[in-house]
Amino acid sequence: MTQTTEMIHEDNLPGHESALDRKPQWQPRYPGSGRLKGKTAIVTGADSGIGRAVAALYAREGANVAIVYLLEDDDAEKTRAIVEDEGSEAICIKADIGSQKMCQKIADQVIERFGAIDILVNNAGEQHPDDDITDITEEQLRRTFQTNIFGMFFMTQAVRPHLKSGSAIVNCTSVTMYKGSWSLLDYSSTKGAITAFTRSLSENLVGDGIRVNAVAPGPIWTPLNPCGGADEEKLKHFGESTPIGRAGEPNEVAPSFLFLACEDSSYMSGQVLHPNGGIIVNG
């Protein structure tokens, strides 16, 4: 494990996946076919949830993976073991992506270890439910934007000198960007910013052969939900309002991240995929 020194995180998010009674399903659902063979990917928030499932699937498809995480050492080491069990190499980097300096250190450490960066998955995020806009403190508002959108800017800035034609960036936005969320005002706002960032960054980089796309998951069972302030009643019925009638699992989202990172999506940039249980968002 490599650890940066400047930690600015102040609460207990995103939470330990190892502590959940109901474990999210991260296991890849089909055999690999070498679609990312020889590639190196950075996945932020890869210690648990969607990030872990993406790391596992990327490893199965042949990529080496830099596992960037905030606090949960045990979860990160589990993801490392998953990647290595798939026959790929992994490095765990403990860092707060809300710091530009720390994002630069992440990029430097990945280059030192693997010599290249081919894929950046901007997945890490946090949320803090509030019923009333007046309950959102300035500190919380700044922190949510710092992690969810500033961190994507900082990570992209750090890896940009190492990206080349054929490289890919995949950002994680959310169904809340499209349909709104009455209790996640600041979180949903950052997801709107992420979608605009994705489309604009695509225009900025596509001429250099670097594709930028995003994934907008619906309600997915990850530590972010039980550890992010949701009450027991909401958790009991989490995901039931979708047309499919249940919450999704991380390994049902990871294939979207794989598709957008590999040559299967070579004619796609500036787009958003929607693994959301059938919610129609028209975007």
Describe this structure in words.
The protein is built from eight helices and eight strands, in the order E-E-H-E-H-E-H-E-H-E-H-H-E-H-H-E. By secondary structure, the protein is α/β, with parallel strands linked by helices. The protein has a single domain, classed as 3-Layer(aba) Sandwich (Rossmann fold), CATH 3.40.50.720. Helix 4 links the parallel strand 5 (119-122) and strand 6 (168-172). Helix 1 packs across helix 8 (250-261) and helix 4 runs parallel beside helix 6. The mean pLDDT is 91.
Task: Offer a quick outline of the entry.
This protein has 283 residues and is of the alpha/beta class.
Jot down its keywords:
globular; 8 strands; Rossmann fold; 12% strand; alpha/beta; 283 residues
